[in-house]
Amino acid sequence: MDDTKITARGRATRQRIIEATGEQILASGIGGTTLDTVRAATLTSKSQLFHYFPGGKTELVREVALWEGQQLLAAQEPEIHDLSTYESWERWRAGLVDYYIGLGRWACPIGSLATQAAMLDPELEATIAASMRQWRDALASGIERMRASGLVDPAADARKLAVSILAAIQGGLVLSQPERAAWPLEAALDTVLDALHRVALPSSASSLPR
């Protein structure tokens, strides 16, 4: 739906539906989220839902994926566009943990959608893949900046390191969920950031913060 063709009040209602659907998907998965449960959670009518999302549940879930991807990157500001020092990485780590755990989100919305998307909707899968690539590339750019300033070995593969960091986040959240505690995510992040320290140049290794 063209967002420019609806009123400010309509945009607020549409956004409220997207956010409520995102929370339901995070709690119950795509299969456990229906238009009826969304209507009940948002106090909207069937006609309202189809007014804002003519494509029904498929369109709504795609919009949730877009919004969650934007939210995830916004939560990592401003460090996601720096990451040129180890201090910046530490601030990024703390902010990311706060984003997930502080909001009581014991799973990654994008990661959760990714595990369900392939069998449901190729367009949804493509949207999630694009979000993951954008996240990976932002992390890799930070590693490249460190490499350019001599903090990381020139031979280090920035993209592979970035993928390892993303894998640590997703795995850490999976382990944090049943514990209802931050420490598994923190441990996973600390381990992968230690790996980043290990590819530091010898001349800078002695001055790295621990």
Uncertain residue ranges = 205-210
Number of strand elements: 0
Radius of gyration: 19 Å
Helix/strand-derived class?
Answer: mainly alpha
- The end-to-end distance, rounded to whole angstroms, is 49 Å
Q: Give the H and E element order.
A: HHHHHHHHHH
Largest sheet: none
> DSSP strand (E) fraction?
under 5%
Counted by DSSP, the helix tally is 10
* Mean pLDDT across residues: 89
The total domain count is 1
Main CATH class: Mainly Alpha
Task: Find the CATH superfamily.
Answer: Tetracycline Repressor, domain 2
How would the global form be characterised? elongated
InterPro entries: Homeodomain-like_sf, Tet_transcr_reg_TetR-rel_C_sf, YxaF_TetR_C
Protein name: TetR/AcrR family transcriptional regulator
Domain Transcriptional regulator LmrA/YxaF-like C-terminal: 107-188
Keywords: Transcription, Transcription regulation
Brief description of this entry?
By secondary structure, the chain is mainly α. Helix content is 72%, strand content 0%.
Structure description:
- This protein is mostly helical and about 210 residues long.
- It has one domain (about 5-205): Tetracycline Repressor, domain 2.
- Helix content is about 70%, strand content about 0%.
- It has ten helices and no strands.
- The longest helix has 27 residues, at about 120-150.
- About 30% of the residues are buried.
- Residues about 205-210 have low confidence and may be disordered.
Name a few traits of the molecule.
single chain; 210 residues; mainly alpha; Tetracycline Repressor, domain 2; 72% helix; 0% strand; elongated; transcription; YxaF_TetR_C; Tet_transcr_reg_TetR-rel_C_sf; TetR/AcrR family transcriptional regulator; Homeodomain-like_sf
